[in-house]
Write a structure and sequence with these properties.
The protein is of the alpha/beta class and 207 residues long. It contains seven helices and four strands; from the N terminus they run ααβαβαβαααβ. The chain has one domain: Rossmann fold. Helix 3 packs parallel to helix 4. 26% of the residues are buried.
């Protein structure tokens, strides 16, 4: 939020556990109150970036692991969009974060990859469903990126970073800001004719 304030904007943080859909009503009420305080009535942009990964080979994945991943990545994303739809402006943008793993394969990622494939299918369907309101729904699929996801392995493990870089056309793993740039581009009016699309941002990983 400090970056928003530094740029002269106004920002506020509202806590949300996306795996707990019973909290969504209170969340949307709080967001609605904030919008009213700022003299606005509708949301223009929603980015669903929260996600969780539990990784392991087929025989090691438990029902609890499966429910955790799908409960957050798919169920949470779906019902959060459902909750905020009444707040969305005509022509709003919904951007869901997927993964390059929906295009290529990697050992021990089956449940996570399947959850992100579901997010992409959800994005296409909702693009059609919300299109009459001018609402655009797209998904961004990051490749290996130096974030704190999965314990920060792609950020902190030098050997892993090099191995991934060797398989990437641009010769390195991505940085969080580069994923943010892609999301920001989808939110701009320059891409107002794009909806129901998957945009991979991976630096050419495993081409």
């Amino acid at each position: 939020m400090r970056h928003v304030h530094a740029a002269g904007g106004t920002a506020a943080g509202v806590r949300l556990d996306i795996s707990d859909i019973s909290s969504f009503g209170a969340f949307t009420s709080e967001v609605s109150a904030l919008l009213e305080r700022w003299g606005a009535s509708r949301l223009d942009i929603v980015v669903n970036n929260a996600g969780v990964g539990v990784f392991g080979p087929l025989e090691a994945v438990t029902a609890e692991d499966f429910d955790t991943v799908f409960g957050t990545n798919v169920r949470g994303t779906f019902f959060l969009i459902q909750s905020v739809v009444p707040l969305l402006a005509q022509g709003a943008r919904v951007i869901n974060v997927s993964s390059s793993l929906t295009r290529h394969t990697s050992p021990a990622t089956s449940v996570y990859s399947a959850s992100k494939a579901a997010v992409e299918a959800l994005s296409r369907t909702l693009a059609a469903e919300l299109g009459p309101r001018g609402i655009r729904v797209n998904s961004v699929a990051p490749g290996p990126t130096a974030t704190d996801f999965n314990g920060g392995a792609m950020r902190d493990d030098v050997g892993m970073r090099q191995g991934l870089a060797d398989q990437t056309a641009l010769g390195r793993v991505g940085e969080p800001e580069e994923i943010g740039d892609a999301i920001a581009s989808l939110a701009e009016e320059d891409l107002r004719w794009m909806t129901g699309q998957r945009v991979e941002v991976s630096g050419g990983f495993l081409l």
